[in-house]
User: What shape does this take?
Amino acid sequence: MPSYLKAMKSVFGHSVKYQMCIASPISISFPTYDMPFHGFNAIGPLRDALISEVNEAVEEYPGLLAVQIECAVENVTVSKIYTSVPALGIGLNAFIASIFAWLFSFSIAATICGFPEDVPTGLHLCYGSPNDTRIVTPPDVTPTVILANAIVSRLNSKKRSLSWLHIPFTESTESSQFAPLKGLQLPSTTQLYLGLVFHDSHDNNVKRLKEAQQFTPKNVTIEGVATPCGMGRKSQAEAIYCMQEMKKLAEEF
Assistant: This one.
């Protein structure tokens, strides 16, 4: 950390913050334990430990940190519910998915509320990417919007704000994937990052960004673009290509 901060300050000055990325308590507990009962029991202690670690880091490096919570399990679960029971129909699937999103929002909001209010805090929603392959492929972004709205609503009830939100997409360039963004209920103070950069082609990345812009609510600021779930499991060539694409899109739009 000290060496990173020294290097960043020499290049960017004091405006750069170190982003501390942590998995949500649920994203740690349920993949760790075979029995759901044990997973539920672990959520509280994990949340307390994460809050303690973040607060210790903030105290040691005041004004220098930003925190991002990685919520893969929550988004994968809600997305699977939305897509896995076609016999129920999309309407009922969305209703059941919203119940799970509502339940997940308690844990996520409780974690955020444990951090100091002056520390920028964002959420990274994704579809998971073991071996750079997403776990679920929903037909559109509806389940992620459902989860995001539930979390934002819970935070609003606690008078806490979200600094940014990352939403993932698939390779599709069809309008139908992006249309549910119309229902995204973010306050104007929350920045939106669109996880739509792939290594398929520049033209497709442009198409996806234009579609997302078309349906994003006017009060929401699209602050930037990203890949759907980081680049840690991409090949070196793919990662370099995606970084170059992000730069191009930022310059063009």
Summary: Residues 36-60 form the longest helix (25 residues). The two ends are 33 Å apart (CA to CA).
